[in-house]
Write a structure and sequence with these properties.
The complex is a heterotrimer. By secondary structure, chain B is an alpha/beta fold. Chain B has helices at residues 2-16, 22-40, 68-84, 101-110, 124-129, 153-158, 181-186, 198-212, 228-239, 257-271, 286-292, 304-312, 346-360, 370-376, 390-403, 412-417, 428-444, 450-468; strands spanning 55-62, 88-94, 116-120, 160-161, 164-165, 167-174, 176-180, 218-220, 296-301, 320-324, 331-340, 421-423. In chain B, β4 (160-161) and β5 form a beta hairpin. In chain B, α9 crosses α17 (428-444). Chain C is mostly helical. Chain C is built from 14 helices and two strands, in the order ααββαααααααααααα. In chain C, α8 crosses α12 and α11 runs antiparallel to α14. In chain C, β1 and β2 (75-78) form a beta hairpin. Chain C has helices at residues 10-24, 30-66, 82-89, 93-124, 129-137, 144-155, 161-168, 183-208, 212-220, 225-236, 238-252, 257-263, 275-285, 289-317, and strands spanning 69-72, 75-78. The chains are: A mainly alpha, B alpha/beta, C mainly alpha.
Amino acid sequence: MAEFTPQNRTLISSAALARPRGKRIYWTVLTVVIVVFTLVFVGPLYWMITSGFKSVHEVVQNPPTLFPHDPQPSNYHTAWTQLKLAKLLWNTFYYAFGALAFQLVFDVTAAYALSKLRPVLGNVVLGAMLATLMIPSAVLIIPQYMTVLDLPLLHVNLINHPWAIWLPTVANGFNIFLLKRFFDSIPNDLMAAAAIDGAGPTRTLLSIVLPMSRPILGVVSIFAVVNVWKDFLWPMLVEPDPTKQPINIGINSLSQGVPENVLIAALAISALPTLLIFLLFQRNIMSGLTAGSLKG
Amino acid sequence: MSRIRYRRLVAFALVAGIGLTSAACSDSNDKKDDGGSKTSSNASAGTPLDPNTKVTISVDCMPPTTKKPERKQWLDDIAEFHKTYPNVTINSKDAFPCEETDKFTAQLQGGSETDAFYSYVTDLQQVLDAGQAADITDYVNDKTVPNLKDIDPGVLDILKDNGRLYGLPTTNYSMGLIYNRKIFQEAGLDPNKPPTTWDEIRADAKTIQDKLGSKGIHGFFEYGAGNQGGWHLTSALYGAGNTVVSDDGSKATFNGPEAKSILQTIHDMRWVDNSMPQSAGKEWGESQKAMGAGQIGMYLAAPDDIQLMVQQYGANFDDLGMAPIPGGKTSLMGGNDYFFKKSDTPDQIKAGIAWINFKFLTLKKGQFNYARNKADGIPVGLPQPFFFTGQSKATDTADKTQYATVPVENYKSYVDAQVPVKGEPPNAQKLYTVLDTVMSGVLSNKSANVDKLLSDAETQANQLLAASQ
Amino acid sequence: MAATTVPDKTTRRHAGRGTAGPKAAGGRGGLSRKLTHNLQAYGFLIGAIICFGLFSWYPMVREFIMSFQQTKRGVTSWVGFHNIKTVYHDPYFWTAWKNTGLFTLYALVIGFAVPFLVAILLNELRHARAYLRVLVYLPVMLPPVAGALLFKYFYNPEYGLFNRILKFFHLPTSQWLDSSHTALISVVIAATWMSMGSATLIYLAALQNIPGELYEAADLDGAGLWSKIWHVTIPQTRLVLSLMLLLQIVATMQEFTNVFLMAGGNGPENSTMTVVYMVYQYGYRYNNFGGAAALGLFLLLVLVGFSGLYARLNRNSD
């Protein structure tokens, strides 16, 4: 869904646009929109990438230069080696996909149990999970942090450990809500048929429910990865070790020690992986996101 | 320890509703005392580390990859240390800057600091509050730290609480004014006559702005955030002979005519003379970057900035001069040190002390290996640290003179002024956060109400001080 | 059995029994089968329950407890309403609320309206749609640190791009992040640039679902452009709009990252100090976690109000 169907009637009718005056206005607006949007959304990225090639002096030069006078690719090299960007990027992916794995396993099984197995007090559990949607995450930052310092009962300190990022992402009421709603829509007759064939709940989940749930799993996955990728305050608190920080935190804490042009080069490098992934898969990502958000 | 208590209280509250148990309190107090007596009853605490002892310690604040010579020296020093103590393994962690207040707090709360951990000397109270510092009184003597008798007692006192010692200093500084001699010359000012009062600073900054403003050079630079603004304002008040808190640490004392006049001067530099950048500093490092790039004439600083600016931000030694703090009544003395984690074993503490003694407190070794510093391009001759007295000071001065690589005469007025030093206030970092707001007020608001800024800050500071009593 | 707890649909109830049915049909062995079934179900739930317990439910309880406690020298004690009084009497308590309110207001005026208008505009264009959609979404893909620090450079009053452009056109320049008057709105503009892509896409999808006949009918009535937007577009997308509105309010009231990265946290004269930043400042600058928790309680009360509204609307949309 969410794909444009050109024949759709919108605010302004195609007939109105076909008239000479409508045509003129339309093409003017279209040109302006394309130019302005390109400037507004690509301009900053262009500035970032080219400034990464400039000398410290040229970065702050007035008026600014459109192209680097004397391109210094070494800035990118310096940024890559001195800020250890490879490590920071790797950490970010590690946290993001680890969080994804935990959410897929724990949240999917939980939503499945709540939707299809319906144990005693299942609805109480569901209610308690959905209630967390009412408590914004920022409010719980302090007690959550205290908890991670010393897990109740287990008395383990998770600071500087990936678990500190992975496990809290599982406690996501929104995931449970999305998944359970989707599972609810799977006809129970299918489940019953599987049960008659002698399939236990695990097999039913794996061979019937999951294959049917690809769209919602896609949405949950995108949210899982994007949330970790975008998070700032929490990883800053729980991953103080510079060698374990994700890219957002690492670059920010190292920003004070390097000249401006090197820092800008580092920003450009940090932006590259996701921009590339997005440009390659933009169709899937965007349709997945709109579908998911509308469902939510 | 707090965590154990939390657990109890939570469990208790959950089971019996919210209630208060005095038993829990006394219980944990006992525990704490137990921990204390265990360390102090260790009979062998005062002997140096047995070189055969196999022990591993983690240490932070290793110079980062962006500081190549310092990092190389650190690694070389560990190798040399290994020759004496082959069984001691040192795990170094790098960071830059070594301490940021917020992260440091988080670290203490989490108990995730290294076995020997770097801090500002102002942090002792916070470290003790978090219950993270080991009492090292019994470990430190003239066998473990041979130069102990020559370390300025005033510096050690900052690291003591109730007569017990918790940390070893690695450097100390006294605040002054760093200025760009080249810019002074170009603006027609005498680089050998730096300003000594705020009025002179304002006049010189204006001259610089008028002459060189078209080149993007500003006269003066100041911070409005990141605890830097508060730190500078405190330094300025010390220069005027003021204090920021009362002697018993219970009341804020910064709100007075001196503070008003200093802030008004800064405000006027920013808004009347336009002799300051339009953007106030927000994070540590901005003034150093700007001075290194030759964009500002003066700012308040500690001498080690000179080294940083030359090595990291492209400044020349010849261009940088250092003058005493304006006002010249007292100068804020700060510094850095290493504390030892409460959970360290006695051997870890001994190994940590041995390493810090070797790296930071032994003449001709580690940071005092001036011959090596000279060869590696690390400046020699800066007036910092200055915590040695007596024979050690004489040796140090002689060594420094022999290997000096920096134009020592550029710091003459700073050294000659002999401004008496004064330690930072208790709860310094909290107060700096509060005073940041005052600085940012005059720097970002043309119609700033200095009186209101100061009285609001006073209210807030008094609250914080009351909460820390 | 508990399989029947959902009261609404009998079909569901029937089918629910169907799942467990073949097993539960054993009569005498039913009890142990039920037990096995429940154990199995809780086996599936256990991972999520542990995570929710540790990182959501327990911290909620703890948030309350901490608000009434203080820790000094490793000793925690009950202090009653002391923490709450302390943060309430902080001279910047109301400043933080005012900023949070203003931030939310700006975020609504800019961050809420702009994506909707952009979506309406894009929906009318017959060309370059894919290109424009990609453009709008591009900044969403940047790591927050890149977007925030980039704007910090653009906003620099002296060498930043924005003032240079304004100067070029002989327009008045601004202090942007360096003045208490403009800092907050500067952060909102940057935040909108960074995140408007998602909202725009959602609105676009909603606009696509408006039946074309409604516009045709409006045309027949001789309605103008604004009238059509007001009488057709907005009512038809009302549900999505109201949900996004509430999501935006709840999200902006928790703002931290952008003010932290761009304005050094509290900003000039505390003009960007949001309540969440103040929580952070109490905890990690003042080392007063009790005070931080107490402040969090205030925030909780306000936000639960908004989330309650959100949940209600969400339920209505079901």
